[in-house]
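An example makes the point: we let one protein speak, the chain in one-letter code, the fold tokenised, and here it is:
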Amino acid sequence: MSKMFSRIGRRGALRGAAAGVVALGLLLWWLLPLGDEPPSGTITISTGTSRGVYQEYATLLRTELDRELPGLKVRLRNSDGSQENVARVATGQADFAIAAADAVETYELNDGPGTARLRGVARLYDDYVQLVVPRDSRIASVADLRGKRVAIGPQDSGVRLIAGRVLKAAGIDPVKGIRPQRDGIDTAPDQLRRGAIDAFFWSGGLPTAGLTQLSEKFAFRFVPIEPDLVARLHATGGATRYYRATNMPESAYPTVQQGSTVPTIAVSNVLITRKDMDPTLTDWVTRTVIKSRDKIGHYVHSAQLVDLRTAIYTDPLVLHEGARRYYRSVKP
């Protein structure tokens, strides 16, 4: 009898060991693209302005790529923002970049150089339009910006693109109807604090470090962008279809909003690359973006919204073959 139990015990142990091997295999399948060694070489990621979310996200992503692909050198290159990022990737000046969907669509509608080469890697998080004025300002709506000194972002930024459209929807010429300034999130907060400008537009993830830092030393508030203004934007067609009316949650900047939401516009961000980018490399990059969500999200809160179920929706771009390979490998 004891021998029989011994045999049964050995069988149970073998079955347990086999189950453990299967579990380990499934874990490795999730974490690694089996059959592929981590790619090596050098890539360039076009980021954004200092104190902006693009730059912060890309810096943290580089750290994760260094960990996952130790033979890969990742170079970061600052930029004005979305418009410049799209152009750089399309023309081969950068290999990856983050760009707002409206900027990608605008580049395509304008038939920019290399448009047909652009591909999507992952939908990341949403940008929120944030129109900032001093707390004691009399500016209460976009229409009140007429004649004022307004920072609308650098020439090739995504914020300039959307700010110009918002102003036009409010009946204001973005060149002649205001006194436009080209400051972005790197310089506009200080300009506002010094009284050099009356307001500035920013389009970025929530919260943006530049605004959080400003709130610690200067009293400001957000001007609402009402849904009827968004409806007027949509009526103009084109890339405005990527804008959606929403509310900036009260938790974005608690000391500024003091429990109140702010009506505004949101637009999705997409990690982009080119068609000729190596599929194996793009597979690994996509995998790292999804895998590192919580680590990056600990520092860039908007990155917590990166989700495997929505990452595949990179409209207006089709998925790169390497990204498609990864999403297929983890499909339930």
About this structure: Residues 1-14, 16-35 have pLDDT under 50 and may be disordered. The beta strands are 41-46, 72-77, 96-100, 118-134, 149-151, 179-181, 199-204, 220-222, 244-248, 262-274.
